[in-house]
Amino acid sequence: MLRGDRATALIAAAVAAILVAVAAWLGVGVSSANPKLADVGAWLWTKARGKIVHVNGLSGEVDGYLNDKAGRQLRVVQDGGDVLLVDDTTGYVSRVEPSQLSVAETRDFGAAGLQLAVSGGTGYAVDPASGKIQQINPATLDTVGAALTLPAPLGAARIDGGGRLWVPVTARGEVVPVAEGTAAAPVKVGEPGEELSVTIAGGLPVVVNSRAATATVIGSDGGVGQITLPKGVSQAARGGALAPAATEGSLVPILTPGDSGLLVVIDTASNAVLSTKLGTGDPAALGTPQVLGSKVYVPDQAAGSLIVWDSADGGRPTTLRVAQDPGPVDVFVKDGLLWANDENGDKAIVIDPEGRKHDVDKDDSDVPGPTNTPKPKQTPRSDPTRTDTPPQPDHVETTTRAPVPPTREPTREPTTGQPTRTPTRTPSSTPTPTSTPTQSAPAPPGGVTARSGPGKVTVTFSPSAGGKVERYTLKSSGDGRSVPQSVDADGPFRFEFTGGSCSGEYTFTVVAHWQGGEVESEPSAGAKPCVAPGSPTGFAAKARNRGAELTWNAPEGADDATTYELTGAATNDAIKGTTFTVEGLKNNQKHSFKLKARNAAGESPDVATAEVDLAYPKQQYKNASNDDTNTIIRTGPSAGDKAGTIPQGQYITLTVICQVKGASYTDSSTGKTSDIWNRIESQYGNGYLNDTLVATPDGGFPEGPLFECTD
Length: 711
Fold this sequence. Notes:
This protein is an all-beta fold. Among the domains are: 1-149, Beta Barrel (Lipocalin), CATH 2.40.128.630; 537-613, Immunoglobulins (Immunoglobulin-like); 619-693, SH3 type barrels. 1% of the residues lie in helices and 43% in strands. It is built from 1 helix and 57 strands. The relative contact order is 0.07. Residues 441-535 form the Fibronectin type-III domain. InterPro entries: FN3_dom, FN3_sf, Ig-like_fold, WD40/YVTN_repeat-like_dom_sf. GO terms for molecular function: DNA binding; hydrolase activity, acting on glycosyl bonds. It holds the Pfam family fn3.
């Protein structure tokens, strides 16, 4: 995976390498007798040519490659200096030695469809069909320790920033963390049979449950929070919603394959949920989305391209050509760069966080073949061994900086002009200017995006093309109001919806008003006018006898619907307000509490913590009623064995530790009766004295600042 180490993107030093022998199943070619591989780069696979090439991420140039027989289906797993080739049909895994451009080891893991998870020197081989998990050394492919088996089938496993493997166990609705080959306590994230996927966002696991339309965020301290997703996520086709293996920041894109092409982006830093309907391409042909910066890149196999959508700006998505022909496009993020690879052809692109793009020619003719003979530069089609046609120069339908596609999608045709005017001018003999409408209807507004926020939903959209729009208004599926009430034709193209209920989900339609009437956009995806709350602040616990008085400050955005869940020394999952009294604890001990806030949008994994020390508040009082006879200190709270004696007539200072109920006792001198006994320490011994023999405050149990003895 992608650990998000952007520092490597600043390293341009090359590593010298020489051509060496290769494993029997692979050949090797290099760009010169003294090849150099850039530290900022990636290995890309081409199925038709059976070639894996290394590409410099800063220039897009090929600087080394390995050859294999064409047609083999290999998958490249790369992390730092670990480069592994997985044969999905056989379960064979080979390790590439980048410094030598060779295959160093090959190992048969014996499982078709094998998963390999590699990150930061930690590796696991996972067989989802059998449930077998084997830790490996990615530098040697050697196994480490004994294998572990979990109930099959398993979902795609990922390694977090701390080196733990998170394995979805569909049969139990759980994810299981595995550290150093040993399974830890599972985390419940759904019901048995619900489809689960894990994304490592900024080093922390996020588990998407498609059927329940939830995202469970697991914090660094093990706390578990949840973000409610739009209901449309639950309508994903079999296999569930698509989410990347990892993201370098807090944004997690989630794509729902289906008729709408619903794209949801959650921000685990703020718990905000952003949703839009792509409305372009064949939703069934869309692949797993990736995110770089604020832009989301969705592969479109039907077009061999990328759909690019900026989550910060909203609006209509744009399209970026990758392959010449339709087919699979492998998209991933590595070293702070986004890579899109045409697996069947010779094209690829690499994009930096600012959206700058380098085209990649994986069959660069300047790179020598396995025989070290340069390939022809200008006549590649004359090569009789090539069965595919070299791709034409890259066609960019829309760059990532362009606000609208230059190729003019069919729904954008009205931007080319006013179609009703052209036919009225063509027949010069029968001009009828008075019968022709002075304006044509504008196209519907597009790119409607709904972003949840505390107490509001921010709705952005792209303006209508063609016609003359006078203003835009917003319709919602429930009660509430929009601010402003209308937007001018020249923008800004944004509304804020307020006044809704956090328990509801709202859809929004943007209406374009023109001289001839109204034109409405497609309804947006659902959104809530709230976000999952963060953790409470100022959480404190004040000691009291056998309990604690808890107080805290509500998190930002909390409202009357916000409740709090208390765990630890006491539990309650539906606390209202910002105070709570805990009772029934043992005194003379320390007790810890955890508190989190929740609402209909979810809850944060971060918790507030507090601790209370119920140590006995020892007090000093004098003994009482000691004029008639000696006062006997007892070993327990009854008139039993003697632990000491205070001589008659002496009044001394006693240390009272705590009080306890015991046998009833009546003082013959005063006639007072009590069943309260004081545990005391004195110069004449330690033990118990009835409360009639100690000058304690009268009233209640325990009295005054004293605590009950609970040990």
